[in-house]
Structure formats: C-alpha cells, structure tokens
Amino acid sequence: MCGIVGYIGPQQAVSFLLEGLRRLEYRGYDSSGVVAIDEGEFAITKTAGRIDDLAAKLLSHPARGHVGLGHTRWATHGPATDANAHPHVGGDGVVALVHNGVIENFREIKKRLAEIGYPCKTATDTEVIAQLVASELDARVGAAEDAADRYAPLVEAVQAALVQLRGTYGLAMVFRDWPDVIVAARLGSPLVIGIGDGEHFIASDGSPLVGHTNRIVYLADHELAVVTRHSIRVVHRDEGDVRHIEQQLDMDSTQVDLNDFPHYMLKEIFEQPETVLAALRGRLNRDEGTAVLGGLNLTPQQLRTIDRIVFTACGTSYHASLVGEYMIEAFAHIPVEVEYASELRYRNPPMSPSTLLFAVTQSGETIDTLAALREMKRKGHSTLAICNVVGSTIAREADGGVFLHAGPEIGVASTKAFTSQCVVMALLALYFGRIRHLSFEAGLRIIEELASLPRHVEQALETNNDARRIAAKYCSCDNFLYLGRQYNFPTALEGALKLKEISYIHAEGYPAAEMKHGPIALVDEHTPSVFIVPQGAVYHKVISNMEEIKARGGPVIAVVDKDDSHAVELADDVIRVPAVPEFLQPIVAVIPLQLLAYHAAVLRGCDVDKPRNLAKSVTVE
Ligand code: G6P
After folding, report:
1. Quick check: is 475 catalytic?
2. Which of 61, 60, 54 is nearest to 18 (CA)?
3. Which of 43, 87, 47 is nearest to 66 (CA)?
4. What's CA 378's distance to the chain center, in Å?
5. How far apart are CA 184 and CA 472, in angstroms?
6. Tens digits of per-residue pLDDT, 496-521?
7. Pocket lining for ligand 1, CB < 6 angstroms
8. Contact between residue 536 and residue 588 where contact means Cβ atoms under 8 Å apart
9. Which of 7, 3, 71, 11 is nearest to 228 (CA)?
10. Residue spans of beta strands (DSSP E) within 107-222
11. Of these residues, 46, 110, 498, 616, which one is catalytic?
12. 140-190 pLDDT tens trace
C-alpha cells in the first residue's frame, strides 16, 4: 500500500527518490509522484501508472533540489489520476506532503477548510491534511521570525493539524519557507528514518535504504520528526521531545534484488529450502525433545495455564494459522480458534483470562491485525506475534513472539512467509505439547521430521516443470477448485488464493467433502479441480471425492506422494511431492500450488509481482 520516501542531503534528491520508489513498488500502487525544493519553489511531478511513467515524465518535467519526497499511491479516496497522486500542496504553496493511511474525518475537515478559505480540489483525504497544515502555518505567520528555535512554529502548526485528524497516517512534508527541513509524522502507518553521512532518508520500510545506510530510527505512533541534513529531532505529538534510539537495518542487497530471477515471487518460492531452515535454526532441542522459543517471554509455568489459543490474521497468514490450529490441537490438545483480524477487532468474544492471542503477520503492519492485537491487549490478554519483519509495529507492540527470519518478502503474493509460518506453528505445537502431555520420544520424532523438512522442500521444487506444463494446459480456464481435507484444507485455501491473486482466475478452496454442498455445481469439463491428496488418515476419503468430480466430467489435477498408486489412476494430471508426515504436508504440498499459480499468471501475461488492485502491506481498513 502507499509508499513514502524522502531525502535531504548534498545529492540530487530525485535519484534516491526514484530508486526508493522502485524498491517500494512491491507494496502495491497505481500512481506516483515526487516533489523537490528548487530555489524556494516546489518542483512537483506526478502521474497515474507505473514508476517508469513517472521517470519518463521527469525527463520533461525535472524535479531538481537537495530536499525532496516521493510517493506511490494505492487509491482509497478518488481514482488513480494524476491530480489525485501525491504530493498534495496546501495553501498558496507553503507545504507539500505525502501520506500513507486514511483520514476518516476528512469530509468534516474539508467542509470547515472551505469555509475559511482553504478549499480542496481533489477527492483525496490527503489534500485535507495539506490544507490543514497550511492553515495552521498561516495562523502563525510572523512567529517564525520571533522564535528562538526557527522550527518551533512549524512543529506547533503540524502538531495542531495532527490532533484534528482521526484515522491513520504516515506523513512526510516539505515547506517553501523552511527549505532545509523535512517533517515526518506517524500514527498507524510505519515510517523509518535512515541516517547517512550529512544526509537523511525517510521511507515506509527499510528496503529503499539498502545500499545507502544501515543506521535507522523507527518513528512510533504519535511521534513527529524534524529532519535536517545534520539532525533528527523527535517530538511526541502531545508530550514534547522524545529521545530517539538508533537501530541497525538488518537487510542486504541480495535480499532486495532479483538476482537472476524474472520475478520476486519465483525467487522467493525457490528460497524456501533456506527460509524453512532459517525458521528452524537454533530452535530444535534434541536433549529435551522440544522447541526453543525464547522470544515468547512467558515461562513454561505461565504457558501451562493457557487453556485456549486464538490466532488472528489476514490473507495467507490466516491460512497458515489454520494449519497451526490442526497442529496445536493434535500435539498439545489446546483448543485453538482462528479469527480474521478484521472481524475480531470489532467483536467482543468471551475470552477467559488464560486465553493467549497470537497475531500472525508477515509484514507486522497489517492494520486489521494490529487493531485486533491492540484490542486484545487492552482487555488484558497476553499477546504474541508470529512475524517476519523485525522492528515492525506488531513485532514491537506484542508482548513477545517468534520471528520467521525469512528475509524481506517482496512479491505481493506471499509464498515463503506461508511455509515459515507453518514451521513456526509446528514449533509451537511441539513446545506446547512438551510442556503438557507429549512424551520425550514423540518430541524427538517431531524434531527429526522437522530437521528433514528443508530437504523435502528442496525436492518439492522439482515439481516446477510439471507445474508449468499443467499451467499451460489449463490457464485459459475461468474457474478452478482446490480441494483437500484436514491439514490440507488450509493448503487448498492457500492454493486457490495464490491463483486468484496473480492470475485473476476465479478459484475456490474448499474442504474436499464439503464441495458437495455447493461448489460441485460449478464442475464441468472446463473447471479443473486441484486435489491435495497425499497419504494419510483421509487419503481414501479424498479419493472418493475425486471420483465424484470425475463422474461429472471435471478434470482432476492431483498433488500426491512420490510413490502414490491410487490417486494417480483417477487424475488427469499429477504432481508428485516427497512423502512427509501429515502435519508437514501443507509445507511441501503448497510449493507446486505456488508454482502452478506463478506459471498460470505468467502465461496469461499478468504482472506477477504487482497484481491488479492488491497491496503487499495493507495499512488501511
Ligand atoms: C495482503 C497481502 C497478502 C497477505 C495479507 C496479510 O493482502 O497481499 O499476501 O497475506 O496482506 O499480510 P500480513 O503481512 O499481515 O501477513
């Protein structure tokens, strides 16, 4: 979702801004723009479309200057047009700003601003902030000359504007009359400041900073930063100066570059043997037959009292949570519920004091997941995070948790985060099982099975050619069904989500037997059904479901164990994956489904890493 970059220093700002915006493309956007301060005037260039369109436009409308901001916009209020793209300007050109988030009370403010001579011209909620800041600045005209601290009126004006806003924002602003400063502010939408040598950078996340600096400062909610070439001052919106803490950015260029892959999604699919290993590294304790999860920040005594676990998440993270539900119930016998974060945040479900909440999120910034976490925290529950991005809001606000250590995930369609989340779920199941009734021997067996997993994931990648061939055969179909049972019901959901996200083919994931209660009506010779049917307790039951589809003329694609002999007889197309214990099947079986979706999307000419309408990090409700 919207991305922000900023630069102040000796270089031409626009070169960092363009490069940074390209690094943020993965977040999802439909227009973009930059502003630089050129001899006391704003040079603004913005356009609907891609960063390439912006770069082309900058050739004829250059934005020169050593202070500047850039933005990728994912439309919420008003369509993706040049005019609605950020930056937006307030007053007679006193401030230019870029915004990530949503201002909920923008209509009321807009009306009020029009009455006092600050009319908004666009449909965006962002322009309201620009006009509000301008009106507050204009109200302080003259104060700047008198003030001992020349930025004091600026800070006051921004603070006065921010307290009037209801909603979320990551904001960066530049000022005509203070051309040597950027002001950034945050409430709900992340912002990070990079510290260089005589220069500072601003970004929505760490990726634009790679190659420029690894020294960073995260802004917290309600903080604003006054950033010059040589200084950073952080002020709480209501409480005055705050001491900021410098941290290390843990990212390198091999993680954010494509290397030899045509798309980030494919690169990340192929990283999975390594990322699965990274999620396991240092977490298997053979001496005690358990998992080591030091970040939970709860003692085994405290964890023993837990009588219920709630996972809350969105999208792919929700599917990984469903896998966790099966694992934890099987190994630890603790009741588990999985709730969409967007639902949980507005519900008031009865929860005993011994309920433990996990927010499951790759980015750590999904607004609904964050809101659900905060609501549960407010009610006094222990809250933990299963998260990939260190330093993200959810990682910082949770009482503890487990990191995925999967490295940056840039492809909008989540792949490696899913398998790492499932690994963490298995570790949690093992850990909770071992502090309850699971024997040492059983724990050790699970450990050995987990230790073999990276090798099996590597073998599962050998399905790439089959996935490409099958994608070519069926990629002109309009509908797909994905069917599996037990552990592989979430696998089916995730396979269907991958396909629809990037190829725009309608796909539904269902528990295989449940398809008789509706989806079977869709089945015809043009609607393939992808069955996830490795060996296990429900193997023969799923084969019966395959028969039901075959009887209605539907093509069947089957993901089966390497030495399968029954399912393959029924299937039109077969993908063989290594045989693993049932609880690990989603991790291995999802890989050909990721590849199938990838190849179908490529064959249909879709922009795999920047799918239509989607955003990587959903920071609005
Ligand atoms: C967006 C992304 C999905 C992701 C979901 C949850 O919809 O496009 O890939 O699964 O958000 O994101 P999170 O970062 O919280 O896991």
Report:
1. no
2. 54
3. 43
4. 24
5. 48
6. 999 999 999 999 999 999 998 998 99
7. 314-317, 361-363, 366, 369, 412-414, 614, 616-618
8. no
9. 7
10. 169-175, 182-187, 192-195, 200-203, 215-218
11. 616
12. 877 666 667 889 999 999 999 999 999 999 999 999 999 999 999 999 888
